[in-house]
Amino acid sequence: MTGGVGRFSLFSAAFRNTAANQLWRILAGPLVLLLIPIYLSAEAQGYWYTFVSLGALTVFADLGFSAIIVHFVAHEFARLEFDRAGFVVGDVQARARLASLFIFASKWSFGMLALVVPISIALGLWLMSAGEAGVDWKSAWVIYSVGCGFNFFLTVLLAFLEGSNRVAEAQRQRLVVSIINALLLVGLLSSGAQLYALALPMLVSGLLGVVALSFRFRATVFELLSSDSFAPASWTHELFPLLKRYAVSWTSGYFILQSIPPLVFYFYGPIDAGRVGLSMAIWMAIFSLSNVWMVVATPKVSMQISLGDSTQLLHLFRTHFRLSVGTFLVGSALFLSALLISHPYSLFAQRLLPIEALLILGLGWLAQLVVSALAMFMRAHKEEPLMWVSVAMAAQIVISTVLLAGQFDVRFIAVSFTAGFLIWLPQVVKLYRGYLSRYE
What we know:
Number of domains: 1
Distance between the termini: 34 Å
Mean pLDDT: 81
Largest sheet: 3 strands, antiparallel
Shape: globular
Number of helices: 18
Radius of gyration: 22 Å
Protein backbone atom coordinates (compact mmCIF):
# COMPACT_ATOMS: atom_id res chain seq x y z
CA MET A 1 0.00 0.00 0.00
CA THR A 2 1.06 3.61 -0.51
CA GLY A 3 0.29 6.72 1.45
CA GLY A 4 0.61 7.55 5.12
CA VAL A 5 3.51 9.52 6.48
CA GLY A 6 6.45 7.30 5.63
CA ARG A 7 10.08 8.30 5.98
CA PHE A 8 12.04 10.65 3.78
CA SER A 9 14.97 9.34 1.74
CA LEU A 10 17.28 11.01 -0.71
CA PHE A 11 16.50 8.05 -2.96
CA SER A 12 12.72 8.17 -2.60
CA ALA A 13 10.58 8.54 -5.69
CA ALA A 14 9.19 11.80 -4.29
CA PHE A 15 12.63 13.37 -4.05
CA ARG A 16 13.87 11.92 -7.36
CA ASN A 17 10.87 13.18 -9.31
CA THR A 18 10.84 16.56 -7.60
CA ALA A 19 14.56 17.00 -8.23
CA ALA A 20 14.20 15.77 -11.81
CA ASN A 21 11.43 18.28 -12.41
CA GLN A 22 13.46 21.18 -11.10
CA LEU A 23 16.67 19.99 -12.78
CA TRP A 24 14.83 19.82 -16.08
CA ARG A 25 13.71 23.39 -15.56
CA ILE A 26 17.26 24.38 -14.74
CA LEU A 27 18.55 22.70 -17.91
CA ALA A 28 15.75 23.88 -20.20
CA GLY A 29 15.51 27.32 -18.62
CA PRO A 30 18.98 28.53 -19.65
CA LEU A 31 18.39 27.31 -23.20
CA VAL A 32 15.22 29.38 -23.40
CA LEU A 33 16.94 32.32 -21.74
CA LEU A 34 19.75 32.12 -24.32
CA LEU A 35 17.35 31.88 -27.24
CA ILE A 36 15.25 34.87 -26.20
CA PRO A 37 17.93 37.50 -27.00
CA ILE A 38 18.67 35.72 -30.29
CA TYR A 39 15.12 35.39 -31.64
CA LEU A 40 13.40 38.34 -29.95
CA SER A 41 14.10 42.02 -30.18
CA ALA A 42 14.76 43.89 -26.95
CA GLU A 43 11.21 45.28 -27.17
CA ALA A 44 9.64 41.84 -27.67
CA GLN A 45 11.69 40.52 -24.73
CA GLY A 46 10.02 43.15 -22.58
CA TYR A 47 6.57 41.94 -23.66
CA TRP A 48 7.65 38.34 -23.01
CA TYR A 49 8.44 38.90 -19.34
CA THR A 50 5.48 41.23 -18.87
CA PHE A 51 3.29 38.36 -20.17
CA VAL A 52 4.83 36.09 -17.53
CA SER A 53 4.23 38.55 -14.70
CA LEU A 54 0.69 39.46 -15.75
CA GLY A 55 -0.12 35.80 -16.39
CA ALA A 56 0.57 35.23 -12.71
CA LEU A 57 -2.65 37.18 -12.09
CA THR A 58 -4.24 33.73 -11.85
CA VAL A 59 -3.08 34.08 -8.24
CA PHE A 60 -6.38 35.93 -7.85
CA ALA A 61 -8.16 32.72 -8.87
CA ASP A 62 -6.03 30.71 -6.47
CA LEU A 63 -5.76 33.13 -3.53
CA GLY A 64 -3.77 30.46 -1.69
CA PHE A 65 -6.49 27.85 -2.25
CA SER A 66 -4.14 25.22 -3.72
CA ALA A 67 -1.76 25.55 -0.74
CA ILE A 68 -4.66 25.18 1.69
CA ILE A 69 -5.82 22.08 -0.19
CA VAL A 70 -2.42 20.41 0.28
CA HIS A 71 -2.58 20.88 4.06
CA PHE A 72 -6.25 19.92 4.47
CA VAL A 73 -5.89 16.81 2.30
CA ALA A 74 -2.73 15.85 4.21
CA HIS A 75 -4.50 16.14 7.56
CA GLU A 76 -7.27 13.81 6.32
CA PHE A 77 -4.83 11.45 4.60
CA ALA A 78 -2.80 10.93 7.79
CA ARG A 79 -5.45 8.24 8.50
CA LEU A 80 -5.80 6.98 4.93
CA GLU A 81 -3.71 5.25 2.27
CA PHE A 82 -3.93 3.89 -1.25
CA ASP A 83 -4.20 0.15 -1.80
CA ARG A 84 -2.50 -1.61 -4.69
CA ALA A 85 -5.47 -0.97 -6.98
CA GLY A 86 -5.31 2.77 -6.35
CA PHE A 87 -8.37 2.96 -4.09
CA VAL A 88 -8.41 5.01 -0.89
CA VAL A 89 -8.79 2.91 2.26
CA GLY A 90 -8.74 3.65 5.96
CA ASP A 91 -10.84 5.77 8.30
CA VAL A 92 -14.36 5.99 6.88
CA GLN A 93 -15.01 9.55 8.06
CA ALA A 94 -11.71 10.85 6.67
CA ARG A 95 -12.45 9.13 3.35
CA ALA A 96 -15.88 10.74 3.13
CA ARG A 97 -14.47 14.19 3.94
CA LEU A 98 -11.81 13.75 1.27
CA ALA A 99 -14.48 13.04 -1.35
CA SER A 100 -16.56 16.07 -0.43
CA LEU A 101 -13.44 18.26 -0.39
CA PHE A 102 -12.70 17.26 -3.99
CA ILE A 103 -16.17 18.35 -5.14
CA PHE A 104 -15.92 21.63 -3.26
CA ALA A 105 -12.47 22.39 -4.69
CA SER A 106 -13.56 21.66 -8.26
CA LYS A 107 -16.57 23.96 -8.05
CA TRP A 108 -14.50 26.71 -6.44
CA SER A 109 -11.79 26.49 -9.11
CA PHE A 110 -14.15 26.67 -12.07
CA GLY A 111 -16.02 29.61 -10.56
CA MET A 112 -12.87 31.61 -9.88
CA LEU A 113 -11.47 30.93 -13.36
CA ALA A 114 -14.66 32.20 -14.99
CA LEU A 115 -14.22 35.44 -13.07
CA VAL A 116 -10.46 36.02 -13.12
CA VAL A 117 -9.35 35.03 -16.64
CA PRO A 118 -11.49 37.67 -18.47
CA ILE A 119 -10.32 40.34 -16.02
CA SER A 120 -6.69 39.31 -16.55
CA ILE A 121 -7.09 39.53 -20.33
CA ALA A 122 -8.65 42.99 -20.13
CA LEU A 123 -6.01 44.31 -17.74
CA GLY A 124 -3.17 43.09 -19.96
CA LEU A 125 -4.71 44.61 -23.07
CA TRP A 126 -4.94 47.96 -21.29
CA LEU A 127 -1.48 47.97 -19.66
CA MET A 128 0.54 46.80 -22.67
CA SER A 129 -1.24 49.03 -25.16
CA ALA A 130 1.27 51.74 -24.19
CA GLY A 131 4.16 49.69 -25.58
CA GLU A 132 5.72 49.34 -29.02
CA ALA A 133 3.19 49.35 -31.87
CA GLY A 134 5.45 47.13 -33.99
CA VAL A 135 5.13 44.06 -31.72
CA ASP A 136 2.31 41.56 -32.44
CA TRP A 137 1.13 40.72 -28.95
CA LYS A 138 -2.66 41.00 -28.48
CA SER A 139 -3.80 37.59 -29.74
CA ALA A 140 -0.80 35.95 -28.08
CA TRP A 141 -1.78 37.55 -24.78
CA VAL A 142 -5.34 36.18 -24.95
CA ILE A 143 -4.06 32.66 -25.71
CA TYR A 144 -1.51 32.87 -22.92
CA SER A 145 -4.13 33.99 -20.39
CA VAL A 146 -6.44 31.08 -21.23
CA GLY A 147 -3.48 28.71 -20.94
CA CYS A 148 -2.72 30.11 -17.48
CA GLY A 149 -6.30 29.24 -16.52
CA PHE A 150 -5.84 25.58 -17.48
CA ASN A 151 -2.56 25.47 -15.58
CA PHE A 152 -4.27 26.85 -12.48
CA PHE A 153 -6.84 24.04 -12.51
CA LEU A 154 -4.01 21.55 -13.02
CA THR A 155 -2.36 23.02 -9.91
CA VAL A 156 -5.48 22.31 -7.84
CA LEU A 157 -5.59 18.70 -9.05
CA LEU A 158 -1.91 18.25 -8.25
CA ALA A 159 -2.48 19.74 -4.79
CA PHE A 160 -4.74 16.77 -4.03
CA LEU A 161 -2.02 14.36 -5.08
CA GLU A 162 0.64 16.10 -3.00
CA GLY A 163 -1.64 16.32 0.03
CA SER A 164 -2.24 12.56 -0.17
CA ASN A 165 1.55 12.09 -0.03
CA ARG A 166 1.78 11.16 -3.70
CA VAL A 167 4.38 13.83 -4.27
CA ALA A 168 6.28 11.52 -6.63
CA GLU A 169 3.35 11.22 -9.04
CA ALA A 170 2.47 14.90 -8.80
CA GLN A 171 6.04 15.90 -9.60
CA ARG A 172 6.23 13.38 -12.45
CA GLN A 173 3.13 15.00 -13.96
CA ARG A 174 4.70 18.43 -13.53
CA LEU A 175 7.84 17.15 -15.25
CA VAL A 176 5.88 15.88 -18.25
CA VAL A 177 4.01 19.18 -18.57
CA SER A 178 7.27 21.11 -18.24
CA ILE A 179 8.95 19.02 -20.96
CA ILE A 180 6.03 19.49 -23.35
CA ASN A 181 6.01 23.22 -22.67
CA ALA A 182 9.77 23.63 -23.13
CA LEU A 183 10.01 21.58 -26.35
CA LEU A 184 7.11 23.43 -27.93
CA LEU A 185 8.51 26.76 -26.78
CA VAL A 186 11.99 26.14 -28.19
CA GLY A 187 10.60 24.83 -31.47
CA LEU A 188 8.23 27.75 -31.96
CA LEU A 189 10.73 30.36 -30.83
CA SER A 190 13.41 29.11 -33.22
CA SER A 191 10.87 29.01 -36.06
CA GLY A 192 10.07 32.71 -35.62
CA ALA A 193 6.75 32.46 -33.76
CA GLN A 194 7.73 35.39 -31.51
CA LEU A 195 5.35 35.83 -28.56
CA TYR A 196 3.20 32.91 -29.73
CA ALA A 197 6.16 30.73 -28.72
CA LEU A 198 5.26 31.60 -25.13
CA ALA A 199 1.47 31.56 -25.50
CA LEU A 200 0.77 28.34 -27.41
CA PRO A 201 2.88 26.02 -25.22
CA MET A 202 1.17 27.41 -22.12
CA LEU A 203 -2.24 26.54 -23.56
CA VAL A 204 -1.30 23.12 -24.95
CA SER A 205 0.67 21.90 -21.92
CA GLY A 206 -2.00 23.05 -19.46
CA LEU A 207 -4.84 21.41 -21.39
CA LEU A 208 -2.94 18.15 -21.90
CA GLY A 209 -1.95 18.11 -18.23
CA VAL A 210 -5.55 18.37 -17.02
CA VAL A 211 -6.75 15.69 -19.45
CA ALA A 212 -3.89 13.28 -18.68
CA LEU A 213 -4.20 13.63 -14.91
CA SER A 214 -7.99 13.20 -14.99
CA PHE A 215 -7.59 10.06 -17.10
CA ARG A 216 -4.75 8.64 -14.99
CA PHE A 217 -6.69 8.87 -11.71
CA ARG A 218 -10.21 8.40 -13.04
CA ALA A 219 -10.75 5.24 -10.96
CA THR A 220 -9.71 6.96 -7.74
CA VAL A 221 -11.97 9.94 -8.42
CA PHE A 222 -14.98 7.76 -9.27
CA GLU A 223 -14.38 5.63 -6.17
CA LEU A 224 -14.17 8.67 -3.89
CA LEU A 225 -17.36 10.11 -5.32
CA SER A 226 -19.36 6.88 -5.05
CA SER A 227 -22.59 7.10 -3.10
CA ASP A 228 -21.42 4.97 -0.17
CA SER A 229 -18.35 7.11 0.53
CA PHE A 230 -19.72 10.59 -0.01
CA ALA A 231 -20.80 12.60 3.03
CA PRO A 232 -20.90 16.38 2.56
CA ALA A 233 -18.80 18.46 4.95
CA SER A 234 -19.12 22.15 5.66
CA TRP A 235 -15.97 23.19 3.82
CA THR A 236 -17.19 26.75 3.51
CA HIS A 237 -17.18 26.97 7.29
CA GLU A 238 -13.82 25.20 7.66
CA LEU A 239 -11.88 26.69 4.76
CA PHE A 240 -13.11 30.24 4.37
CA PRO A 241 -11.81 31.74 7.64
CA LEU A 242 -8.34 30.53 6.64
CA LEU A 243 -8.84 31.30 2.94
CA LYS A 244 -9.63 34.94 3.70
CA ARG A 245 -6.26 35.32 5.35
CA TYR A 246 -4.51 33.31 2.63
CA ALA A 247 -6.19 35.46 -0.02
CA VAL A 248 -4.65 38.59 1.42
CA SER A 249 -1.23 36.92 1.73
CA TRP A 250 -1.32 35.41 -1.79
CA THR A 251 -2.45 38.69 -3.34
CA SER A 252 0.37 40.41 -1.52
CA GLY A 253 2.71 37.69 -2.77
CA TYR A 254 1.81 38.56 -6.34
CA PHE A 255 2.75 42.19 -5.82
CA ILE A 256 5.95 41.14 -4.03
CA LEU A 257 7.21 38.74 -6.72
CA GLN A 258 5.47 39.69 -9.96
CA SER A 259 4.61 43.40 -9.93
CA ILE A 260 8.09 44.73 -10.73
CA PRO A 261 8.37 43.78 -14.46
CA PRO A 262 4.98 45.35 -15.35
CA LEU A 263 5.86 48.48 -13.36
CA VAL A 264 9.23 48.71 -15.11
CA PHE A 265 7.44 48.22 -18.44
CA TYR A 266 5.13 51.13 -17.62
CA PHE A 267 7.80 53.53 -16.31
CA TYR A 268 10.91 52.55 -18.28
CA GLY A 269 9.61 50.75 -21.39
CA PRO A 270 9.87 47.20 -22.76
CA ILE A 271 13.69 47.07 -23.07
CA ASP A 272 14.36 47.64 -19.36
CA ALA A 273 11.38 45.43 -18.49
CA GLY A 274 13.11 42.66 -20.42
CA ARG A 275 16.37 43.14 -18.50
CA VAL A 276 14.60 43.08 -15.16
CA GLY A 277 12.43 40.14 -16.19
CA LEU A 278 15.37 38.03 -17.36
CA SER A 279 17.34 38.81 -14.19
CA MET A 280 14.38 37.89 -11.98
CA ALA A 281 13.79 34.70 -13.99
CA ILE A 282 17.32 33.45 -13.31
CA TRP A 283 17.09 34.01 -9.57
CA MET A 284 13.62 32.46 -9.53
CA ALA A 285 15.06 29.36 -11.24
CA ILE A 286 17.75 29.03 -8.55
CA PHE A 287 15.08 29.57 -5.88
CA SER A 288 12.84 26.88 -7.41
CA LEU A 289 15.63 24.30 -7.50
CA SER A 290 16.55 25.07 -3.88
CA ASN A 291 12.91 24.90 -2.80
CA VAL A 292 12.67 21.25 -3.94
CA TRP A 293 13.58 20.23 -0.40
CA MET A 294 10.63 22.13 1.08
CA VAL A 295 8.17 20.94 -1.58
CA VAL A 296 9.00 17.32 -0.78
CA ALA A 297 8.64 17.93 2.96
CA THR A 298 5.32 19.85 2.88
CA PRO A 299 2.78 16.96 3.10
CA LYS A 300 4.94 15.07 5.61
CA VAL A 301 5.19 18.15 7.84
CA SER A 302 1.39 18.49 7.83
CA MET A 303 0.96 14.80 8.61
CA GLN A 304 3.43 14.90 11.51
CA ILE A 305 1.55 17.88 12.95
CA SER A 306 -1.73 15.97 12.60
CA LEU A 307 -0.23 12.92 14.34
CA GLY A 308 1.45 15.04 17.06
CA ASP A 309 4.98 13.69 16.50
CA SER A 310 7.00 16.79 17.44
CA THR A 311 10.42 15.09 17.42
CA GLN A 312 10.10 13.81 13.87
CA LEU A 313 8.44 17.06 12.77
CA LEU A 314 11.28 19.33 13.88
CA HIS A 315 14.00 16.99 12.61
CA LEU A 316 12.31 16.76 9.21
CA PHE A 317 11.80 20.50 8.84
CA ARG A 318 15.25 21.57 10.02
CA THR A 319 17.01 19.04 7.78
CA HIS A 320 15.15 20.19 4.69
CA PHE A 321 15.62 23.84 5.56
CA ARG A 322 19.39 23.49 5.77
CA LEU A 323 19.51 21.57 2.48
CA SER A 324 17.38 24.25 0.82
CA VAL A 325 19.57 27.17 1.88
CA GLY A 326 22.75 25.26 1.02
CA THR A 327 21.49 24.49 -2.46
CA PHE A 328 20.69 28.15 -3.05
CA LEU A 329 24.16 29.28 -2.02
CA VAL A 330 25.83 26.74 -4.32
CA GLY A 331 23.57 27.64 -7.24
CA SER A 332 24.19 31.35 -6.72
CA ALA A 333 27.95 30.86 -6.70
CA LEU A 334 27.86 28.84 -9.94
CA PHE A 335 25.66 31.40 -11.72
CA LEU A 336 27.69 34.43 -10.68
CA SER A 337 30.99 32.71 -11.53
CA ALA A 338 29.76 31.79 -15.01
CA LEU A 339 28.47 35.33 -15.54
CA LEU A 340 31.73 36.97 -14.52
CA ILE A 341 33.73 34.71 -16.85
CA SER A 342 31.50 35.22 -19.89
CA HIS A 343 30.34 38.79 -19.28
CA PRO A 344 32.68 40.64 -21.69
CA TYR A 345 31.67 38.43 -24.62
CA SER A 346 28.04 37.53 -23.99
CA LEU A 347 24.93 39.01 -25.62
CA PHE A 348 23.03 37.19 -22.88
CA ALA A 349 24.84 39.15 -20.15
CA GLN A 350 24.04 42.42 -21.93
CA ARG A 351 20.33 41.66 -21.59
CA LEU A 352 20.68 41.40 -17.79
CA LEU A 353 20.91 44.01 -15.07
CA PRO A 354 24.47 45.04 -14.03
CA ILE A 355 26.31 42.65 -11.71
CA GLU A 356 25.82 44.81 -8.59
CA ALA A 357 22.05 44.82 -9.14
CA LEU A 358 22.09 41.04 -9.68
CA LEU A 359 23.87 40.58 -6.34
CA ILE A 360 21.26 42.67 -4.58
CA LEU A 361 18.45 40.68 -6.25
CA GLY A 362 20.13 37.44 -5.20
CA LEU A 363 20.16 38.54 -1.58
CA GLY A 364 16.46 39.30 -1.85
CA TRP A 365 15.69 35.85 -3.29
CA LEU A 366 17.70 34.18 -0.50
CA ALA A 367 15.56 36.04 2.03
CA GLN A 368 12.47 34.95 0.09
CA LEU A 369 13.63 31.32 0.35
CA VAL A 370 13.89 31.63 4.13
CA VAL A 371 10.50 33.35 4.40
CA SER A 372 8.88 30.71 2.18
CA ALA A 373 10.26 27.83 4.26
CA LEU A 374 9.18 29.32 7.59
CA ALA A 375 5.78 30.17 6.13
CA MET A 376 5.30 26.54 5.03
CA PHE A 377 5.96 25.33 8.58
CA MET A 378 3.49 27.77 10.10
CA ARG A 379 0.79 27.23 7.48
CA ALA A 380 1.04 23.46 7.90
CA HIS A 381 -0.82 24.07 11.18
CA LYS A 382 -3.81 25.19 9.06
CA GLU A 383 -3.21 28.78 10.15
CA GLU A 384 -2.12 31.95 8.36
CA PRO A 385 -0.05 34.19 10.63
CA LEU A 386 1.65 36.13 7.83
CA MET A 387 -1.30 38.05 6.42
CA TRP A 388 -0.36 41.51 7.66
CA VAL A 389 3.36 40.92 7.16
CA SER A 390 2.64 40.05 3.51
CA VAL A 391 0.52 43.18 3.07
CA ALA A 392 3.21 45.39 4.57
CA MET A 393 5.95 43.80 2.47
CA ALA A 394 3.95 44.14 -0.75
CA ALA A 395 3.05 47.76 -0.01
CA GLN A 396 6.65 48.64 0.72
CA ILE A 397 7.97 47.00 -2.48
CA VAL A 398 5.33 48.48 -4.78
CA ILE A 399 5.44 51.98 -3.27
CA SER A 400 9.23 52.13 -3.21
CA THR A 401 9.39 50.85 -6.81
CA VAL A 402 6.96 53.54 -7.97
CA LEU A 403 8.87 56.24 -6.09
CA LEU A 404 12.21 55.11 -7.53
CA ALA A 405 10.86 54.64 -11.06
CA GLY A 406 11.69 57.51 -13.35
CA GLN A 407 13.89 59.17 -10.72
CA PHE A 408 16.79 56.72 -10.74
CA ASP A 409 18.43 54.19 -13.03
CA VAL A 410 16.50 50.93 -13.39
CA ARG A 411 19.14 49.03 -11.40
CA PHE A 412 17.85 50.69 -8.20
CA ILE A 413 14.64 48.68 -8.60
CA ALA A 414 16.61 45.73 -7.18
CA VAL A 415 17.04 47.71 -3.95
CA SER A 416 13.28 48.13 -3.45
CA PHE A 417 12.73 44.39 -4.00
CA THR A 418 15.39 43.19 -1.57
CA ALA A 419 14.72 45.81 1.10
CA GLY A 420 11.14 44.58 1.37
CA PHE A 421 12.32 41.11 2.40
CA LEU A 422 15.18 42.15 4.67
CA ILE A 423 13.09 44.64 6.65
CA TRP A 424 10.29 42.16 7.39
CA LEU A 425 12.36 38.97 7.75
CA PRO A 426 12.92 39.48 11.53
CA GLN A 427 9.16 39.63 12.09
CA VAL A 428 8.67 36.36 10.18
CA VAL A 429 11.39 34.70 12.28
CA LYS A 430 9.71 35.97 15.46
CA LEU A 431 6.38 34.42 14.41
CA TYR A 432 8.12 31.15 13.53
CA ARG A 433 9.73 30.99 16.98
CA GLY A 434 6.27 31.32 18.48
CA TYR A 435 5.25 28.13 16.66
CA LEU A 436 8.45 26.36 17.77
CA SER A 437 7.60 27.14 21.40
CA ARG A 438 4.60 24.80 21.07
CA TYR A 439 7.00 21.86 20.79
CA GLU A 440 9.60 22.83 23.39
